[in-house]
DNA sequence: GATGAATGAGTCTTCATTCAT
DNA sequence: GATGAATGAAGACTCATTCAT
């Protein structure tokens, strides 16, 4: 287990450097000097640089995969939104806690390899598929409007990624606050709810802002 | 002009290769062999590989910058949503028309250089700021719910990016369809509008159709 | 003759640049941009860069060769020292007038080519041989001490080169002053003549500095 | 020490090649193939080609610097000429022993770099200054004729350089013989001493053996 | 296991020279 | 003759990986 400890130590240092400089600007010399090991030792624990990087990437990916659960419907199951919220809390808290892995995933997980690129893309596709499934469920339950849930799911995924990317670097951010914003946004968009509660987009009630909403969420073109 | 034509030719080929393989896996040999020019010729038109890449990147960035207009409010100005839609149409149609540049921007614009990275980040921040400004405007006009518009703006930006990234490679997407999905999603989220104007979720006022979404868009925990 | 004028123009500009930067740091682009001609035009007048450089070098070399005359002895011939002085005046005045060529010869005429190197070396050897011949003549006439005239000749040559190199860059220097210093030095070295006018080196007369000269120009070891 | 041995090995081979071909015609491939090392190994020990060359150059320069001592005057100090001789013996024996470095210094130490060029020039200027100081001392002691000691010092320096350059390649020169020739030449020039103490040439005092050299070391023209 | 010296394939970049217009 | 775009050989340097100790 000494072996595992060493590996972990190197991974820890490499993680930090990869997060900061990305894969290509990080060289093995950086890693070993930070980790305080010899060049040869590095290759005792990792097949090569790419292998180490891949391991870090798979670490995030699998941690995240574990944290995203399929929504369950049925008697006795928690409210779907609660399930969403719980998913988000698990994901976001991990991402914010593991800022370096997050940075690697969001900023440096692209462009070495068809293989790694695909791996990441597959992960995102899986997440998007889960989101889409939830949406489809919502549509079935008439809770979600009947739109292109595939596009929706990627929009939500992208929103989450970008918010996390934005929030991540700047020190401490409240997981809950971020989750609520994402959740609200994903569910309701930006519009004030009372302006929307009429059939169709843009047929807003006349609210207190005297009819101008009509011109804001105006009629769709299509 | 002969000169400009040559440059354009090289840019065209390089664009394709960079889009496919990214910056690091693309070498000058790839570019020149595709472009059918000699090694020296390349350096006649570009200072170096990075310079060429930067030019492509700045091309997208500046084209997009031009296409995103600040919303204007006031008598005689078009409906804000129309302005949003117009922005989106300009942006999305460009991105879908310039698939390769889009790929470069979305997948390969990170990790060589502090400088280039910053340039891209600055661009995105500018876009997010424009979005946020529109949202703030909406809040003032009581059309947008009063939430963290900064986070919202990044969520929207991220949504757009991810949808474009998903839709771009297939090449079969209609600009209008994509724009409408994004717009609807951004404005109203996923929920059926008539379910929203209820207590519990987010900052919603107490609307008239209380409680129907109770089980799905249920009360926040915090 | 238009052709010769063009050539001369290019040579003039190239001369200045070569003098300043040497052969290797000077590139064809430097020369043509200074000379205001196109790249191709350069090769209309010169076979290549080396050819141009060689021409400049041969220009100095042949000018100098012409200026160094064999000493003539015999009734009616001028005093040998006058002949030396005249040689020096011709050489030095040329070198100081043609500072750029001088710089090229003294600082940048080495290290491209066995051939050019040899050419320069041959030139210097020829000059040294002429000097040696003068010295041998002097020895015959019992005016020059009987030493290794070959070494002497190179010492004189080196002295001249170094003095010219030192004097050359700093603007105007009097040809006559330089010539006299060289001549005096070459003929008499540094010692005060009256301390030497005794047989053998180092058997100085007791001068006004009370005998310490004896210890200064002390007895030779060999 | 293993490291130093390797460095020394590379330096040794590089020295030989640089001496033979100069800086520009020598490429890294030459050096490594001679040294029997791989390309990468070269850069393990030297930052780049210039760095290696600079090191060789500084090696000669500093060895020589150490070997040239300021003349000391005062009771108990050795005879000044002995000190000169000792300096020369140290310098010349080093230069003849290190033929390759000598070649590099004398033939290939010019024209890559303002910086290196300056370094060499500074070295020569320092040596010339030391020589000048000795001469000034001699003037004070009335042992050296009162002439432009600055020019004299460069003349002496140049003489030494040229003699060494001439003598070095053959490899058959005796240090002592060369030193004596240089010393005699520097001190007494070429003239037979007994002919010098006459009016007419240079700054000679009127000595007792007036006029015998009249026809050879005749009156100056100016 | 650990070390770090050695490796060499891979890339970029320069620049003298050519040649079609 | 003049031009300047194009050429490509030559060379420097990097860095992930190997291997003898």
Classified in CATH, the superfamily of the largest domain in chain A is Tetracycline Repressor, domain 2
Assembly classification: homotetramer
Based on secondary structure, the structural category of chain A is: mainly alpha
What is the approximate shape of chain A?
elongated
Largest sheet of chain A: none
Q: How much of the sequence of chain A is in beta strands?
A: under 5%
Structure, described:
- The structure is a homotetramer of 222-residue chains.
- Chain A has helices at residues 2-25, 28-35, 39-45, 49-67, 80-97, 99-107, 114-140, 149-167, 175-188, 212-216.
- Chain A has 222 residues and is an all-alpha fold.
- Chain A folds into three domains: 1-46, Orthogonal Bundle (Arc Repressor Mutant, subunit A); 49-190, Tetracycline Repressor, domain 2 (Orthogonal Bundle); 191-222, no CATH class.
- The termini of chain A are far apart.
- The first copy, chain A, is built from ten helices and no strands.
- The interface between A and B is large, with 79 and 77 residues.
- Chain B binds a DNA duplex (21 and 21 nucleotides) through helix 1 and helix 3.
Keywords:
Tetracycline Repressor, domain 2; 68% helix; disordered C terminus; 3 domains; mainly alpha; 222 residues; homotetramer; DNA-binding
Helix/strand layout:
Four copies of one chain form a homotetramer.
Chain A: H1 2-25, H2 28-35, H3 39-45, H4 49-67, H5 80-97, H6 99-107, H7 114-140, H8 149-167, H9 175-188, H10 212-216
Helix pairs in contact in A: 1-2, 1-4, 1-6, 4-5, 4-6, 4-7, 5-9, 7-8
Chain B binds a DNA duplex (21 and 21 nucleotides) through helix 1 and helix 3.
């Amino acid at each position: 287990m000494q072996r595992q400890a060493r590996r972990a130590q190197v991974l820890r240092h490499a993680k930090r450097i990869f997060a900061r400089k990305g894969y290509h600007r990080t060289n093995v010399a950086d890693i070993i000097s930070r980790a305080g090991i010899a060049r040869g030792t590095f290759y005792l624990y990792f097949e090569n640089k790419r292998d180490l990087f891949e391991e870090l990437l798979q670490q995030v990916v699998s941690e995240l995969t574990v944290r995203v659960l399929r929504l369950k419907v049925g008697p006795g199951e928690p409210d779907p939104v609660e399930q969403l919220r719980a998913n988000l809390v698990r994901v976001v808290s991990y991402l914010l806690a593991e800022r370096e892995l997050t940075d690697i995933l969001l900023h440096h997980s692209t462009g070495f390899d068809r293989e790694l690129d695909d791996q990441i893309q597959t992960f995102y596709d899986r997440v998007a598929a889960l989101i889409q499934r939830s949406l489809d469920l919502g549509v079935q339950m008439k809770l979600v409007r009947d739109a292109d849930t595939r596009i929706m799911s990627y929009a939500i995924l992208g929103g989450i990624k970008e918010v996390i990317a934005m929030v991540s670097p700047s020190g401490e951010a409240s997981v809950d606050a971020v989750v609520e914003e994402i959740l609200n946004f994903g569910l309701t968009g930006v519009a004030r709810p009372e302006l929307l509660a009429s059939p169709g987009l843009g047929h807003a009630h006349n609210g207190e802002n005297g009819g101008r909403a009509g011109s804001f969420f105006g009629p769709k073109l299509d």
